Amino acid sequence: MPGINPPDRYTGVAIALHWIVAVLIVANVVLGLVADDIPDSYVRAVIDLHKSFGITVLGLVLLRILWRLAHRPPPLPASYSRLEQVASHGVHGLLYLVILALPISGWMHDSAWKGAASHPMSLYGLVPWPRIGWIESIEPVQKEHLHDIFFAAHAAAAYALYALLALHIIGALKHQFWDREPELQRMLPGG
């Protein structure tokens, strides 16, 4: 398998942000899926951790976008067809959009929760975190309706994320193992 030159790799910061966000997203998917199946005494802690991970992902992905704007990513290998290049850029763009939409829709959902006033939000139980004021101040019946709408948006974004992650992973593995391009080496830590 051919080697890879440093200019063909992502920067160390981009690599670190990619993998930290990926791990937090996987952990958050697990937390979201198990919340309904755990004893009631643990539900609040799991949901609070889910919220903390989501807000952390939001901050890190915003940082990653800023980093990407300031540090051009390495070009795609010349062997990629035009269709593969367009698909790669399209999937990456949609991933960024969905990764932003998930925590924002979750934050909106939480801000419309009827129990919000009696359960302040904090990151990791340490840092107070505000809810979205205009949502929190809506009259209760309308807020409950918005709570359902924002949850539906959050769930739809989660399903979109699953599909996009599958395309992203399948594409990377196809290029690495089928096409024999050093695709994974562009984003794996340690060179």
- Overall number of strands: 2
Mean pLDDT: 92
Task: Quickly give the CATH architecture.
Answer: Up-down Bundle
Approximate helicity band: 55-70%
Query: How does the helix and strand content classify structurally?
Result: mainly alpha
Counted up, domains total 1
Shape summary: elongated
* Strand order of the biggest β-sheet: 1-2
In the predicted model, the low-confidence regions spanning at least 5 consecutive residues are none
In this structure, how is the largest beta sheet organized? 2 strands, antiparallel
* Text of the CATH class: Mainly Alpha
Share of residues in strands: under 5%
How far the N terminus sits from the C terminus, by CA atoms, comes to 14 Å
Task: Name a few traits of the molecule.
191 residues, mainly alpha, Fumarate Reductase Cytochrome B subunit, two-stranded antiparallel ribbon, 5 helices, 2 strands
Write the layout of secondary structure elements.
Layout: H1 12-34, H2 40-70, H3 82-111, E1 122-123, E2 127-128, H4 133-136, H5 140-178
Antiparallel strand pairs: 1-2
Describe the overall structure:
The chain is an all-alpha fold and 191 residues long. The chain has a single domain, classed as Up-down Bundle (Fumarate Reductase Cytochrome B subunit), CATH 1.20.950. It has five helices and two strands. A two-stranded antiparallel sheet has the order 1-2. 18% of the residues are buried.
